[in-house]
């Protein structure tokens, strides 16, 4: 079994009585972000730890309140503080040292409660049954990478409310070369031999569109592409015929299938195994993406009819954005429309934003809980996402992929009063106007000739005024949303360019970044124009880093499917 890593930074659990002393009477914690374990969250509040030898400031409080106060630190922290904390399971505080907690309203002297957390795995009972372990059993995990090691004496914590996750403190994580989101393998060991190792799987990734079906076959967990293709479909070629060609081409067994689903509304916050109930839920929100979801579902049903015995996984474009706060996702329309019909911003390109943000965290070596990123997915479809603490905080697309930045054939945001106005002037129906906004607007609509940025740049260099105007408008709208993201994040550590235009057009990247110097954004012209692939294109002196990161949505899908099915 492969288990995601959660590096446990120093943190504090408090009783309500201690919270009242430290922060004020009847104090209620302010949530900063949810943690992977249901009901647990990082708070905005921090405290200072004072030990016999030294102090550590800005130590995060985790919620909710508990029946005991406890401080979890690393061995390095113990040296700084001057305490000798034992390795203990959470709540096992007998014989542990204490220290002073200092908050904005007062201080608390703990007689005990400082521990080095026992490395442990949170397991749902189903996960425990699959591994054949019980609560409080000990197992081992194997890491991969340059510092591949086997960590023994890993405590199993089993509870119906737990989500699968391996917790390790910062000292051990650094020594083992582990970061948040890495995967470790649960194994059994004896004194001499590894007895059980990971399960290899072949995962087929399917992306069904109205005009084509893309596929990739991955060997997991090595993430090796075994086969791939892009098959065109038309009115004269049925989806069944396309799938017959795909399955005839794919060699060898298939252990799991990952399906791209564009719209999951607020029903899905992560990828899920597909069941009849999941299919019904996806169908219930398909009116929100009528050009995409029905086609996606058609592909799911066709694949499941051909491979009924293996697990199928749905990966949602909208899932990554379900961490947005109401101030980001609500529209200023009567609230009952949200309550009755869930009319709100959902956002898209989630798998792309998720992949490039995770890569940025690794490239910049900044923990995601400290990283502020503006991710610019710029292709024929365009979305700009403000990411805080590794989570989507705001994004440009809305209820549908039509909203936000000007795109290849989509208008992006317009005055909604334009729709009835055009209906009246042109004698068009609402459906016809929406078709115009989706398929005949954007770069195509302004230029009048093409939505291909390469052709528009060539035409603009030849003096084509409307091609130049289309590009000017495109850059202006991107400026607008990057500026909005800077405001929402209170600055940024990095800007990422990804997708077809973002990865390949040095000229547009340069034009987009021009005028953003006030925010600390300075390009390195040589890296921007002459470099290739994944790289840093900002000046070495630029406070805000600028990266080009080729997206890999299919790999995200394969990883999710593997994690859910192994």
From TrEMBL:
Record-linked InterPro entries: Ac/propionate_kinase, Aliphatic_acid_kin_short-chain, Aliphatic_acid_kinase_CS, ATPase_NBD, PTAC
For this protein, what does the record note about how its cofactor is bound? Mg(2+). Can also accept Mn(2+).
Identify the residues that bind ATP: 214, 377-381, 452-454, 500-504
Keyword Transmembrane on entry: no
Q: State where Mg(2+) binds.
A: 207, 553
The UniProt transmembrane annotation reads none
Which cellular component appears as one GO term in the record? cytoplasm
The EC code for this enzyme is 2.7.2.1
Q: In which pathway does it act?
A: Metabolic intermediate biosynthesis; acetyl-CoA biosynthesis; acetyl-CoA from acetate: step 1/2
Q: What does this protein do?
A: Catalyzes the formation of acetyl phosphate from acetate and ATP. Can also catalyze the reverse reaction.
HAMAP family assigned to the protein according to its UniProt record, in alphabetical order: Acetate_kinase (MF_00020)
Q: Under which name does UniProt file this protein?
A: Acetate kinase
Identify the species of origin. Tumebacillus permanentifrigoris
Lineage in the entry?
Bacteria, Bacillati, Bacillota, Bacilli, Bacillales
Q: Which gene encodes it?
A: ackA
């Amino acid at each position: 079994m492969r288990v995601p890593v959660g590096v446990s930074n120093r943190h504090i659990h408090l009783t309500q009585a201690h919270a009242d002393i430290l922060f004020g009477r009847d104090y209620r914690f302010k949530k900063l972000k949810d943690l992977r374990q249901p009901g647990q969250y990082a708070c905005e509040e921090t405290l200072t730890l004072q030990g016999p030898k030294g102090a550590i400031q800005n130590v995060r409080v985790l919620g909710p309140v508990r029946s005991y106060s406890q401080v979890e630190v690393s061995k390095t922290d113990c040296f700084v503080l001057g305490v000798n904390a034992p390795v203990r399971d959470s709540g096992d505080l007998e014989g542990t040292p204490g220290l002073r907690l200092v908050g904005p309203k007062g201080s608390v002297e703990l007689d005990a409660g400082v521990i080095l957390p026992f490395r442990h795995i949170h397991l749902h009972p189903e996960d425990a049954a699959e591994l054949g372990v019980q609560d409080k059993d000990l197992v081992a995990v194997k890491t991969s990478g340059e510092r591949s090691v086997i960590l023994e004496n890993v405590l199993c914590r089993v509870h119906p409310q737990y989500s699968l996750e391996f917790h390790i403190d910062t000292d051990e994580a650094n020594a083992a070369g582990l970061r948040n989101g890495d995967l470790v393998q649960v194994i059994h060991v004896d004194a001499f031999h590894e007895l059980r190792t990971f399960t290899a799987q072949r995962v087929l990734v399917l992306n069904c569109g109205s005009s084509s079906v893309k596929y990739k076959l991955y060997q997991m967990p090595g993430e090796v592409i075994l086969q791939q293709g892009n098959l065109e479909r038309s009115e004269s070629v049925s989806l069944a015929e396309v799938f017959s060609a795909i399955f005839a081409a794919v060699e060898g067994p298939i252990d799991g299938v990952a399906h791209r689903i564009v719209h999951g509304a607020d029903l899905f916050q992560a990828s899920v195994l597909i069941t009849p109930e999941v299919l019904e839920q996806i169908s219930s929100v398909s009116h929100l993406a009528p050009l995409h979801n029905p086609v996606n579902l058609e592909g799911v049903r066709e694949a499941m009819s051909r491979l009924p015995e293996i697990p199928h996984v749905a990966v949602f474009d909208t899932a990554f954005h379900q961490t947005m706060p109401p101030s980001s996702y609500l529209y200023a329309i009567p609230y009952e429309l949200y309550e009755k019909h869930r009319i709100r911003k959902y956002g898209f390109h989630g798998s792309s934003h998720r992949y490039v943000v995770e890569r940025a965290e690794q490239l910049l070596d900044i923990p995601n809980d400290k990283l502020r990123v503006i991710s610019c997915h710029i292709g024929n479809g365009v979305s700009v996402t403000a990411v805080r603490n590794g989570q989507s905080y705001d994004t440009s697309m809305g209820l549908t992929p039509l909203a936000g930045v000007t795109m290849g054939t989509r208008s992006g945001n317009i005055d909604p009063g334009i729709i009835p106005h055009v209906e009246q002037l042109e004698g068009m129906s609402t459906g016809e106007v929406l078709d115009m906004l989706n398929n005949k607007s954007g770069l195509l609509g302004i230029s009048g000739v093409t939505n291909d940025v390469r052709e528009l740049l060539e035409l603009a260099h030849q003096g084509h005024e409307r091609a130049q105007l289309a590009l000017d408008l495109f850059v202006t709208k991107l400026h607008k949303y990057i500026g909005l993201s800077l405001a929402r994040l209170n600055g940024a550590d990095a800007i990422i360019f990804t997708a077809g235009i973002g990865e390949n057009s040095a000229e547009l990247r340069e034009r987009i970044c021009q005028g953003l110097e006030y925010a600390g954004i300075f390009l390195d012209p040589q890296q921007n124009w002459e470099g290739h692939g994944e790289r840093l294109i900002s000046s070495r002196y630029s406070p805000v880093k600028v990266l080009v990161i080729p997206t890999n949505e299919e790999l995200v899908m394969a990883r999710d499917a593997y994690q859910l099915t192994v």
